[in-house]
UniProtKB/TrEMBL annotation:
Keywords: Acyltransferase, Transferase, Ubl conjugation pathway. It catalyses: an N-terminal L-alpha-aminoacyl-[protein] + L-arginyl-tRNA(Arg) = an N-terminal L-arginyl-L-aminoacyl-[protein] + tRNA(Arg) + H(+). Involved in the post-translational conjugation of arginine to the N-terminal aspartate or glutamate of a protein. This arginylation is required for degradation of the protein via the ubiquitin pathway. Belongs to the R-transferase family. This is Arginyl-tRNA--protein transferase. Residues 132-151, 495-548 are annotated as: Disordered. The keyword Chaperone does not apply. Residues 514-524 have a biased composition (Basic and acidic residues). One of its GO terms (cellular component) is cytoplasm.
Length: 580
């Protein structure tokens, strides 16, 4: 079966061409039933517009490479509900804040990373005992000293910038000529010194009282009969000059009651501040100059830190360093044998995409990176430690999968990358207001591995029948009763069918209790691997529609016209083909 979307799509973004693969049955990677109890409907996409795929997501579909699938919710063993959250409403939990702060401590060298315990032989008994090397503490202290030195260097840099701003004020007549101005001194504001005296004081990082010293100098130099500028006005003039002379990436400069204050530009609770963000120009990730490999990078530099974190957003394409990390991840984390980890699997699962790329625009309809499939890479001191596979669509960032370095498991890179992806949506709403949501894939209530997704609050689930979004706290009591539920029936619960009047409150308490009891480690795994990889869709060859392997799948004829509904701006025409 083949469908083609008309050219009336938004901004003429191409056309969608899909082949219907019909109904598919396979063993389930979630409940491990052993029988072919996992039932879904599949489409093979030759191409698909970002607008059509956005609408498919909002009707319960998902992609793995170029294969699109939708669980048959009433019949499959483990119903999978699409889950999302509105990025601007995201409230980080204490655990998510801890993950973010842990990364900050690692970058500034104050995180005590325990080294593996080395077995040594006891000369008296000949048996092996374990001894913890003291070098870990020495290394942590060394990192701390280096961090303090870098902090001092950065504060001296800020002091020099204030000096330059004061001299600029003198040159334009803001201060009397012929006066020897004092040297500025910038100090770091400790957490204990921060007081909620004014709005934004919690973001205060560095401060200088140079305006008071300038005021005293002017009083000494001028006759007693003349009025002297007050420190608060002096501070405002210096700050204005600073903003004209210097761009402080990641820091904002404000005057308050005579103080010149440097604030972290991050406004979220989980942002720790003290981060300099440098946006680098678009460049070729491979050096080939191909437009398909353009990337946008951000560099997170803690001024007092010993390490540098760089986050790169690049178009989905083969990357040798990514593949090598994928190999290590599959072998060490999922215990795959080396001969089962191939480039074709990496390409088919994580790189290939049917999404038609949409170029960025300045009209507020497309973000600076464009729409399409991307890899978000995380590099520490130039070493790739993780990469996330994401789709950026007109209304959301859809997170598909994350590969991370097993040696950096202590950083909880799965949770950290999710926080970064949510932050990316919030940041890009400025240039593309339609970007509102963060999609976490499927939520499977009966699978404990999927429970972590509900910890990103406030989340909502897609009703599988009416395609309405229902708050998770409201939907949970329905899922407590049965695995498949028409979530929009929650209205009947609120109308008195449930004896518990505090449904949402009880659900929230149960959820928090479960999250606290769960041994949820750093792994942010997605359903694609469990659902599609274990059986019939486990290899690139089996998914390729041109091969005989696809034709031999256990496919039942399906009427896709009943499934592909409500695609805005699309008129789809189908031709039914019988696979032999």
């Amino acid at each position: 079966m083949r469908g083609e979307a008309s050219s009336s799509n938004i901004n003429n973004r191409g056309r969608s061409v899909v082949a219907d693969c019909g109904r598919q049955k396979s063993s389930c990677g979630y409940c491990k039933s052993g029988a072919r109890t996992s039932i879904s409907h599949g489409l093979w996409a030759q191409s698909i517009t970002v607008d059509d795929y956005q609408d498919l997501l909002d009707q319960g579909w998902r992609r793995s490479g170029c294969f699109l699938y939708k669980p048959e919710m009433e019949t499959t063993c483990c119903p999978s509900y699409t889950i999302r959250l509105k990025a601007s409403d995201f409230v980080p939990s204490k655990e998510q804040n801890r993950v973010y702060r842990r990364m900050q401590r690692f970058l500034d060298g104050t995180l005590d990373v325990k080294k593996p315990v080395q077995p040594i032989e006891d000369p008296a008994t000949g048996s092996c005992v374990h001894q913890v090397s003291s070098s870990a503490a020495d290394e942590s202290l060394s990192h701390k000293n280096k961090g303090e030195k870098k902090t001092e260097e950065f504060m001296q840099h800020l002091s020099n910038q204030i000096d330059n701003a004061m001299h600029a004020c003198s040159e334009v007549g803001e201060f009397p000529s012929g006066i020897q101005l004092p040297k500025a001194l910038v100090k770091k504001v400790s957490h204990s010194e921060k007081k909620p005296l004014f709005e934004g004081s919690e973001d205060l990082v560095y401060t200088s009282n140079i305006a008071f010293q300038i005021e005293a100098t002017l009083k000494r130099a001028q006759s007693a009969g003349k009025d002297v500028q007050q420190s608060k006005f002096i501070a405002e003039k210096v700050v204005n000059s600073l903003n004209q002379l210097t761009k402080f990436s990641g820091l904002s400069v404000r005057a308050y009651n005579g103080h010149i204050n440097f604030h972290s530009s991050g406004k979220d609770e989980y942002l720790d501040g003290n981060i300099q963000i440098v946006t680098l120009p678009e460049e070729s990730a491979t050096g080939s100059g191909s437009k398909s490999s353009l990337s946008i990078s951000k560099c997170f530099i803690n001024p007092q830190g010993t390490k540098k974190l760089e986050i790169r957003l690049k178009r989905s394409s083969f990357d040798r360093e990514e593949y090598e990390l994928y190999e290590r991840y599959q072998i060490k984390v999922h215990n795959d044998s080396p001969d089962h980890v191939t480039e074709s699997l990496y390409m088919g699962f994580l790189v290939e995409t049917p999404l038609i790329f949409v170029q960025p625009s300045n009209d507020g309809l497309v973000p600076p990176c464009g729409f399409g499939s991307f890899h978000q890479q995380y590099l520490i001191d130039g070493q790739l430690v993780a990469f996330g596979v994401i789709d950026i669509l007109p209304r959301c960032l859809s997170s598909k999968y994350l590969i991370w370095d097993p040696d950096y498991a202590f950083l909880s890179l799965g949770k950290y990358s999710a926080i970064q992806e949510i932050g990316w949506v919030k940041e890009n709403q400025v240039s593309c207001p339609s970007l509102q949501y963060y999609y976490l894939g499927y939520y499977i209530y009966s699978c404990s591995k999927m429970r972590y997704k509900a910890a990103y609050r406030p989340s909502e689930l897609l009703c599988p029948l009416q395609y309405k979004w229902v708050p998770f706290d409201v939907a949970r009591p329905l899922l407590d009763k049965k695995k498949y539920a028409v979530l929009s029936d929650y209205a009947s619960l609120q109308n008195g069918e449930s004896s518990n009047s505090g449904v949402a409150e009880s659900a929230l308490e149960l959820q928090q209790d479960e999250i606290n009891r769960e041994d949820r480690n750093d792994v942010r795994m997605d359903d694609d691997e469990e659902m599609l990889v274990p059986e019939s869709e486990s290899s690139d060859d089996e998914l390729e529609p041109e091969t005989s392997d696809l034709m031999s799948l256990g496919i039942e004829d399906g009427d896709v016209t009943k499934i592909l509904i409500g695609l805005r701006g699309s008129q789809v025409r189908y031709k039914v083909c019988k696979y032999k």
